[in-house]
Q: What sequence folds into this?
């Protein structure tokens, strides 16, 4: 009786082969187009991160070289901050270049500069906004520039209600003012317009 009811080895194998798949095997295969899109997005992200790290590294090295021209008392804070930063950026750049070749990064950068990478176009748009912020700081000072920048981003781009926009703008600007002017006793740059009317020689 026992022998009659026990399945043979071939029957057991056949049952396993016809059983519904579970676990990772049950996941539908990714199509070639989806796999290509995923790989393209990964390559774009890697190239963008590599370029950003290279830019930060160059700026940090330039700031370090500039700090060498100062007296030690004035430049020691820069040394303490920049030396670890340069080391970390160098290590990150080495890691990124090991993950993908510089030639691949250069190829993706060429695609991005040609306008064929949507995510890069969005990032360039944000860079232009930041450049506009820096120019506004130079002309009108930090506080006016920060308030204007937040207003334009929240109301013009994010389409936030005026109430939320004004609350966030005023609160952020006031917090920055209190932190620097009262907390750190540091006067942030007031801009060329303020300096001109205050009697400074700006040109």
A:
């Amino acid at each position: 009786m026992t022998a009659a009811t026990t399945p043979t080895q071939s029957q057991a194998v056949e049952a396993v082969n016809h059983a519904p798949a579970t676990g990772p095997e049950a996941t539908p295969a990714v199509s070639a187009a989806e796999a290509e899109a995923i790989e393209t997005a990964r390559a774009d992200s890697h190239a963008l991160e590599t370029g950003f790290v290279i830019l930060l590294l160059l700026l940090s090295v330039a700031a370090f070289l500039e700090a060498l021209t100062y007296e030690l008392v004035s430049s020691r804070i820069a040394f303490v901050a920049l030396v670890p930063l340069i080391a970390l950026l160098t290590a990150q750049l080495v890691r990124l270049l090991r993950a993908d070749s510089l030639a691949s990064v250069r190829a993706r950068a060429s695609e991005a500069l040609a306008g064929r990478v949507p995510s890069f176009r969005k990032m360039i748009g944000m860079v232009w906004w930041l450049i506009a912020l820096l120019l506004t700081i130079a002309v009108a000072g930090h506080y006016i520039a920060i308030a204007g920048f937040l207003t334009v981003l929240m109301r013009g781009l994010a389409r936030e209600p005026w109430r939320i926009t004004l609350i966030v703008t005023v609160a952020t600007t006031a917090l920055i003012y209190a932190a620097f002017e009262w907390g750190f006793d540091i006067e942030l740059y007031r801009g060329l317009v303020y300096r001109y009317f205050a009697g400074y020689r700006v040109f």
